[in-house]
Amino acid sequence: MPMIDVYATEGTFADKHALAQDHATAVMGWEQVPDLALFRDNTAAFVHDLPANSIANVAGESNYVRVQVLTPAGVLDRNKQLGVVKELTDLIATAGGDPTLAQRTWVLLTESPEGGWGVAGHANTGADLAQAARAEMAGTAEQATTDE
Q1: What's the rounded Cα separation, in Å, for the pair 133 and 126?
Q2: Best label site of 35, 58, 124, 134, fewest CB within 10 Å?
Q3: Within its chain, how far is the Cα of 120 from the centroid?
């Protein structure tokens, strides 16, 4: 259940909503969690427009993008880290209409500590999230049985 934040100068992206949805979908895919409402409803991306004068590297350039991905601890192994960074970078370049933007995109992967993932006012552990997923899957299976 990642949270993704994309920071760029104003005007970098024409369709911020599509970019946010694409990022959320990509990271959920790399996490390889079941396609459950629990995960779909709680995986989100936020696109932040910043004034050009609020970003600078040492040379003073402000044409960079920063993507920060927060996931529960341990969900992204090395292969998943490599894949998600590549895919998010590609999505940024495509959404920005500038292939060179990939060279100026920084992706930061951050893990929330155990118990540090709050949803609906509760600080969840990995076990809490797994239990909620199992309950949703059982409810879905039960509903399918009664629908037959």
Answers
A1: 11
A2: 58
A3: 19
Please say whether the dihedral angle defined by the alpha carbons of residues 57, 62, 64 and 70, taken in this order, is positive or negative.
positive
- Strand (E) or helix (H) holding 45: strand 44-50
- Look at residue 130 in the predicted model and tell me its pLDDT: 75
Distances (CA, A) of 88 to 3, 17, 53, 131, 132: 13, 15, 25, 29, 28
Contact by Cβ (8 Å): 132, 122:
no
**In whole angstroms, what is the distance from residue 45 CA to residue 12 CA?**
16
On whether the CB atoms of residues 68 and 108 are closer than 8 A, the answer is yes
The three-point CA angle 123-129-132 to 5° equals 115
Q: pLDDT (tens digit, 9 = 90+) per residue, 14-64?
A: 999 999 999 999 999 998 887 877 778 878 999 999 998 999 999 999 999
Tell me what the pLDDT averaged over the chain comes to. 89
Rounded to an integer, what distance in angstroms lies between the CA atom of residue 14 and that of residue 126? 36
Give the CA distances from residue 29 to residues 33, 40, 121, in Å, rounded to whole numbers and listed in that order.
Answer: 7, 10, 26
